[in-house]
Amino acid sequence: MPTEHLFVDGALAAADMARRIAVVLGDAIAARGVATIALSGGRSPRPVLEALSGAALEWDKVVVTLVDERWVAADHADSNERLVRETLLQGAAAKARFVGMKNDAADAYAGQAACETALAELPWPLDIVLLGMGEDGHTASLFPEAKELAEGLSTHALTVAVTPPAAPHQRMSLSARAILKSRHIFLQIGGAAKKAVYDRALAGGPVEELPIRVALCQHGVSVEVWISE
């Protein structure tokens, strides 16, 4: 079972998660000389990343990558890379090394091989994979009913190109294998609707129905969940 951190307020949850991330990254640097984290995009991580940016870490020993990315330019409003650069990689934290997913290929499928090569050079396992979850149970860009879901769940590759069934933009996503090739999985859950989906996922069932089960219904990697009302 995941370790749950319960909060009545999303801001308090974000601040606590940022503190916990900083501890894990600091411990990783002390133990191995480098710390690695994969970050999710969207609205939920923004306050976490802003708080984490001020942590007293040896940022030049931190490597930051993404859980998934929309196949848009790095300055596009929907770019996860842009979010990370605007929130986390500021001040002292700008010394961290960022390894993005988007490259110059015309689409995500054409860019997958180069993205795979770039991510394969990271020091695996990652120390933290920071996940979010949609109300459809997707995590990273592993969407229910996406035609690439089976590949994302079964491939030995670290990455998979995805066309979401409803959301805009092609995506590049970490595969299930990559998500589980980590030391810690952290998950943000905010609001009653997502809490209900989280509870359904924990109860068990096909991972294809609720892909967040990739993280929740396994025993190889420790999982911590920050839940706010």
Automatic annotation (TrEMBL):
<comment type="function">
    <text>Hydrolysis of 6-phosphogluconolactone to 6-phosphogluconate.</text>
</comment>
<comment type="pathway">
    <text>Carbohydrate degradation; pentose phosphate pathway; D-ribulose 5-phosphate from D-glucose 6-phosphate (oxidative stage): step 2/3.</text>
</comment>
<dbReference type="InterPro" id="IPR037171">
    <property type="entry name" value="NagB/RpiA_transferase-like"/>
</dbReference>
<dbReference type="InterPro" id="IPR006148">
    <property type="entry name" value="Glc/Gal-6P_isomerase"/>
</dbReference>
<dbReference type="InterPro" id="IPR039104">
    <property type="entry name" value="6PGL"/>
</dbReference>
<protein>
    <recommendedName>
        <fullName>6-phosphogluconolactonase</fullName>
        <ecNumber>3.1.1.31</ecNumber>
    </recommendedName>
</protein>
<dbReference type="InterPro" id="IPR005900">
    <property type="entry name" value="6-phosphogluconolactonase_DevB"/>
</dbReference>
<dbReference type="GO" id="GO:0017057">
    <property type="term" value="F:6-phosphogluconolactonase activity"/>
</dbReference>
<dbReference type="Pfam" id="PF01182">
    <property type="entry name" value="Glucosamine_iso"/>
</dbReference>
<comment type="similarity">
    <text>Belongs to the glucosamine/galactosamine-6-phosphate isomerase family. 6-phosphogluconolactonase subfamily.</text>
</comment>
<feature type="domain" description="Glucosamine/galactosamine-6-phosphate isomerase">
    <location>
        <begin position="13"/>
        <end position="219"/>
    </location>
</feature>
<keyword id="KW-0378">Hydrolase</keyword>
